[in-house]
Design a protein that fits this description.
Strand order of the largest sheet: 1-2-5-4
Structural class: mainly beta
Distance between the termini: 43 Å
Number of strands: 15
CATH architecture of the largest domain: Sandwich
CATH class of the largest domain: Mainly Beta
Order of helices and strands: HEEEEEHEEEEEEEEHEE
Helix content: under 10%
């Protein structure tokens, strides 16, 4: 009997923790201070849950900044032009989920080197309302390091649900023949794991002979010898339902397939 009572007490103590489902995610999962990012916050289990009025983000630079680290929109009570950029959007299907999209350097008015981590809370118009997300949340910002190379991906790390862009720099290619190609295509293939635990290897978007007649594999000419192709892995590739893509292989080539670059690889995050 005493053991049962102890178990009941422990369960009751854990209930408040289980009810607080406050979470934060970003898209893309990895970003720099100069990238546009969408921050999504679930306020379930907080005093803001079920709130029907407008909601704002209260944000600050939690790492890398020495002075004036609050966002210029941190004004209480919120409302009016000065806080308009901090207003978040409520999800249409889940009223406890909110999103906001911004570029950190613009939102904070700081240099990239001063933005290493963003701290945030969501709140109703006034702190005095007593309606806000419970704990300080933080999201990491990657350092802005760019070294020109023949190929690169942005972001460097990504999930299967993120938009990833493959870049080809014609000026830096190791293939002299590729330097004169005017229409560039990508031969793309993926590896990963099926829902049943079996592996799949080098599954192509299109066969080598079909790449030149597949419009979605043609790169966009961005000028100055830079070409790019953007895609969402889980949407772009034809893999079985529930499969996880762990690696993307790609070769840049001409439409005919007679001229090509080296083989490159990109590794998305396997966990959200």
């Amino acid at each position: 009997m005493m053991m049962k009572n102890i178990l009941k007490i422990l369960l009751l103590a854990l209930l408040p923790l289980a009810g607080n489902a406050q979470t934060v995610t970003t898209s893309p999962a990895v970003f720099t201070a100069e990238d546009e990012v969408t921050i999504t916050v679930d306020v379930s289990g907080t005093s803001l849950a079920g709130h029907a009025g407008d909601v704002w983000i209260w944000a600050w630079i939690a790492e890398g900044c020495s002075t004036n680290c609050d966002a210029p929109t941190n004004i209480d009570p919120a409302g009016g032009e000065n806080t308009e950029d901090a207003k978040v959007t409520r999800d249409e299907t889940n009223p406890n989920v909110y999103r906001i999209t911004f570029t950190p350097v613009d939102f904070f008015g700081k240099a990239p080197s001063e933005i290493g981590k963003i701290g945030l809370k969501l709140k109703s118009q006034s702190w005095g309302d007593g309606k806000q997300s419970d704990n300080d949340l933080t999201v990491a910002v990657q350092p802005l390091i760019f070294i020109p190379t023949e190929n690169r991906t942005f972001p460097v790390k990504f999930t299967g649900e993120d938009v990833v862009t493959l870049f080809f720099d014609q000026n830096l290619t190791g293939s002299s023949d590729m330097k004169s190609v005017t229409e560039i295509y990508a031969y793309l293939f993926v590896s990963g794991q099926n829902a049943d635990g079996t592996d799949f290897l080098d599954v192509p978007k299109a066969q080598w002979s079909d790449v030149g007649s597949t419009p979605e594999l043609k790169l966009t000419d961005r000028g100055d010898g830079i070409y790019s192709l953007s895609l969402i892995p889980e949407v772009f590739f034809d893999v079985t339902e529930g499969a996880t893509i762990t690696k993307i292989g790609y070769i840049f080539r001409n439409a005919e397939g007679t001229v090509q670059s080296d083989t490159f690889e990109a590794f998305p995050l396997t966990e959200e």
